Amino acid sequence: MTTNSSPQLWLYDTTLRDGTQREGLSVSIEDKLRIAKRLDQLGIPFIEGGWPGANPKDVQFFWQLQEDPLKQAEIVAFCSTRRPNSTAATEPMLQAILAAGTRWVTIFGKSWDLHVTTGLNTTLEENLAMICDTIEYLRSQGRRIIYDAEHWFDGYKHNPDYALQTLDAAIASGAEWLVLCDTNGGTLPHEISQIVQDVSSHLSFVISQEPMTKDIDAPEASRRVGERTIPQIGIHTHNDSEMAVANAIAAVMAGAKMVQGTINGYGERCGNANLCSLIPNLQLKAGYSCITEDQLTQLTEASRFVSEVVNLAPDEHAPFVGRSAFAHKGGIHVSAVERNPLTYEHIQPEQVGNHRRIVISEQSGLSNVLAKARSFGIELDQQKAEAREILQRLKDLESEGFQFEAAEASFVLLMHEALGGRQKFFEVKGFQVHCDLIEGKETSNALATVKIAVDGKNILEAAEGNGPVAALDAALRKALVNFYPQIATFDLTDYKVRILNGHTGTAAKTRVLVESGNGRQRWTTVGVSTNILEASYQAVVEGLEYGLLLHSQAEAAVKASS
Predict the structure, then answer these.
(1) In angstroms, rounded to a whole number, what is the distance separating the alpha carbons of residues 198 and 190?
(2) Distance from C-alpha of 301 to C-alpha of 462, rounded to nearest angstrom
(3) pLDDT of residue 522
(4) What is the average per-residue pLDDT within 256-275?
(5) Within this chain, domains 10-309 and 426-483 share the same CATH topology
(6) Structural domain boundaries of the chain?
(7) Which residues sit opposite 193 in a β-bridge?
(8) Cα dihedral angle (506, 507, 508, 509), rounded to 10 degrees?
(9) Distance between CA atoms of residues 79 and 176, nearest Å
(10) Is the pLDDT of residue 43 over 70?
(11) Contact criterion met (CB below 8 Å) for 53 and 80
């Protein structure tokens, strides 16, 4: 819990630049604008928008934000130092940076002598001149500078004297932040701590050499010594050793005041430090002020929003924001959490906008069933036979290959059936599916015929699809929509198949999970059979049935309130 006296940390999000370097991740200008506005709502102070001039998309992104600025965040342009043996004033890429119109610019330069001589193919002295010239030029154009010391930790370990000279060059030129980058992601937390302390000592020495003077222009985080701005330290870590979050926290504990990272840890290779883990750890546990408490409750939604926009499945097991982060499966765990959540939860899930879930599986005890039933508005009496009957039925079905922790809608229907209250919206009398495989074509045509009964009336319908499951789903909807118009709003949003015992060859048992939705809610149902069409039929039919149950319950609630 933070207070008014909590030390301030400055968050810097680089999802729109570093995060988009993740393999398989691509975003449009519209995507970038949507993410930037969502991060602005989350309270992130600095949002790195990209490298203007590197590609047309980033140029247009910054132009559009000039027309429609963010509410509170500083949008930051990113660029390298000028090229060797040139001048910053004549560098075309720096003109694109100025045209982006941002108040803050992040410039990265080389800290590691190996990169200077091998990567840039220039001298150590010229690299220092590149840092000075670039920052001084941008400062002369009214820009404020965040200096990213690329490969800082590797450079410092190999040649500490030269690495510190690169920081001195940035300080002398007017940088207001020195961000130490673990670019290769190979440093360990104890090394991070020691090196950040070394840099802090170096900055203290620099400060002691000249008297402090008032600087009316510098932000709260920077100070002025004579004509030089003495910056504060920031940290930028990569996850190649699975240490990005730990390393960032270690740097903060050693004195860093800015933390750079990405939403969901997106980034090149193994990713960047995950802000969705860093923010709650730093704010709820280490006592730093990052964003407001209300904004913190938006963290889970923001994480899922970004994953949706970039079209990547969310990590269900991600700390803090994952769907399973506060899920409880073992019977002993559930029983304890029901009495006191502190027994198996390190924070209250609501603090980060998440919620507790009770998972149902063959490992469940009676406490799981009771808690899960309550979450769906079903009160079970543990002294009565129905509760234990549901538990036994659950275990029997899961031993056959069903998986109810991933298909809670099917479990709700199972409970209603055990209690004798499963509403029969329709009955499937039978179905047939016919497929035509046409040589030379990548797709097959399928025709499904279904016979169903609704209120004693038999209906026979047929429909085509680009596969047998699509045809079966279409035929069922066509047969039912005249009786239940709301089915027109149902969508089959996901379809997953798992072979359970592949060693039996074509006789293997198949599990099918079907996710359905109605535009407001989503639910998942399961089917298991040695016949993949039979398994699909079970899951699709239960998906329709559960959607009708939700609609029926919503109508009943409206009537009860009126």
Answers:
(1) 12
(2) 41
(3) 87
(4) 98
(5) no
(6) 10-309, 327-399, 426-483, 489-562
(7) none
(8) 130
(9) 16
(10) yes
(11) no
- Tell me how far CA of residue 401 lies from CA of 224, 331, 395, 491, 508, in angstroms: 68, 20, 10, 25, 11
* 366-375 and 408-418 helices, crossing angle to 10°: 100
CATH topology (fold) of 489-562: Double Stranded RNA Binding Domain (3.30.160)
What angle (nearest 5°) sits at the alpha carbon of residue 58, between those of residues 55 and 59? Answer: 85
The lowest-confidence range among 221-225, 315-319, 329-333 is: 221-225
> What radius of gyration, in Å, describes the C-alpha atoms of the chain?
29
Determine contact, residues 258/270, Cβ cutoff 8 Å.
no
DSSP-derived 3-state class of residue 373: helix
Q: How confident is the model at residue 147 (pLDDT cuts 50, 70, 90)?
A: very high
- pTM exceeds 0.85: no
Summarised one tens digit per residue, pLDDT across range 130-140 is 999 999 999 99
**How many residues does this entry show for the chain?**
562
User: Of 63, 56, 149, 52, which Cα lies nearest the Cα of 91?
Assistant: 52
Q: Among 3.30.160, 3.30.450, 3.10.450, 3.40.50, what is the CATH number of 426-483?
A: 3.30.160
The domain made up of 10-309 is a member of CATH 3.20.20.70: yes
Angstrom CA distances, 265 to 214, 279, 429, stand at: 39, 12, 50
3-state SS, 439-501, equals CCCCCCEEEEEEEEEECCEEEEEEEEECCHHHHHHHHHHHHHCCCCHHHHHCEEEEEEEEECC
Banded model confidence at residue 214, pLDDT cuts 50, 70, 90: very low
Q: How far apart are CA 348 and CA 313, in angstroms?
A: 25
> For 270-283, what is the mean pLDDT?
98
Q: Which residue has the tokens 């990272």?
A: 261
Residues 3-13 have a mean pLDDT of 86
Reply yes or no on whether the pLDDT at 234 is more than 50.
yes
> In which band, very low, low, confident or very high, does the pLDDT at 194 lie, cut at 50, 70 and 90?
very high
pLDDT-based confidence at 219, cuts 50/70/90? very low
What is the distance between the alpha carbons of residues 419 and 414, in angstroms, rounded to a whole number? 9
Q: Report which of residues 59 and 2 the model is more confident about.
A: 59
Q: What is the 3-state secondary structure (H, E, C) of 378-418?
A: CCCCCCCHHHHHHHHHHHHHHHCCCCCCCCHHHHHHHHHHH
Q: For 224, phi and psi rounded to 5 degrees? A: -120, 130
- Cα 207 to Cα 239: distance, rounded to the nearest angstrom: 33
